[in-house]
Design goal:
By secondary structure, the protein is mostly helical. The protein has two domains: about 160 residues, Serine Threonine Protein Phosphatase 5, Tetratricopeptide repeat (Alpha Horseshoe), CATH 1.25.40; about 35 residues. It is about 60% helix and about 5% strand. It is built from ten helices and three strands. It has a three-stranded antiparallel beta sheet with strand order 1-2-3, covered by helices on one side. Helix 4 packs antiparallel against helix 6 and helix 6 runs antiparallel to helix 7. The longest helix has 23 residues.
């Protein structure tokens, strides 16, 4: 009989407090798994679908099941009005979302940013579904405290995906959009004064600064810098050459593209 003692699995993989320790392994079924080290053992998660591998009501997850219920309700009634989530429904969705929370933390450490983006977006959908359709007021509000954090994690994932592709402008647009969404959440709750102090905002602001330092410089701005330096150093002939190059560049940008001839 195979041993059930976890010490063999954990041997050489020590728990480190205040640090997320994860690894990817291949399961006995031949598919990849994510393991997260805990103080008394580990969590093992599937890399796709529900982290525990379950398929509630034959769906990928409880969220997918309730979204299908909502779609069926709209198809039958022509409106979302009358669709409700009971308190047990919401509790089960919260418990399921915790699984996805653990997984996207692990994915972030493993730099699987597409996975983080997918799972954080999924948990944001849970917040939206409960906020709109929960029967009890408490169930509509309980998860809302986590919305800024989820927006931040989703945005960070989107930014890292864009940076990997070298699309710096997209990365900058993503982080600005994330900051705007957090500001909107606070404004809706009359808490705009908290914006600058929020950890989520500070993390995204630092990420925006990092993107700015990595963005390739605009050729025209680079020439402007060289021109100013030439003027400061009284290299007027160089300044004249740089000024001509800038004028030529501006002319090219303003010149309309040639029209294609019709055959």
């Amino acid at each position: 009989m195979a041993s059930l003692d976890l010490r063999r699995i954990l041997s050489g993989w020590d728990y480190e407090a205040n640090q997320i320790t994860v690894r990817k392994i291949t399961g006995d079924d031949g598919t990849p798994k994510i393991q997260m080290r805990l103080d008394l053992g580990l969590l093992q998660m599937e890399v796709s679908g529900r982290p525990d591998g379950a398929r509630p009501h034959g769906c990928d997850c409880l969220l997918a099941y309730h979204e299908k219920r909502l779609a069926d309700h709209v198809a039958k009634n022509g409106t979302e009005l009358g669709f409700e989530l009971t308190a047990p429904d919401c509790q089960a969705l919260r418990e399921e979302s915790l699984q996805y929370y653990h997984r996207y933390l692990a994915e972030f450490v493993l730099e699987d940013f597409e996975g983080v983006e997918r799972d954080a977006a999924r948990n944001l959908r849970v917040l939206d579904l409960c906020r709109i359709h929960a029967r009890e007021v408490a169930d509509r509000e309980t998860l809302e405290q986590y919305r800024p954090y989820l927006i931040m994690m989703h945005t960070r994932a989107q930014v890292h995906v864009a940076l990997r592709r070298g699309t710096f402008k997209t990365a900058l647009a993503r982080v600005n959009a994330g900051l705007s969404m957090i500001h909107e959440v606070l404004a809706d709750n009359g808490q705009e004064e908290m914006f600058e102090e929020m950890t989520e905002v500070q993390i995204l602001s630092s990420l925006r600064d990092e993107i700015a330092t990595r963005m390739p410089k605009d050729p025209l701005r680079r020439l402007e810098g060289e021109l100013q330096k030439a003027v400061d150093e009284e290299r007027y002939e160089d300044a004249a050459v740089l000024r001509n190059r800038m004028e030529a560049m501006k002319t090219r940008h303003l010149k309309p593209a040639p029209r294609k001839r019709r055959k």
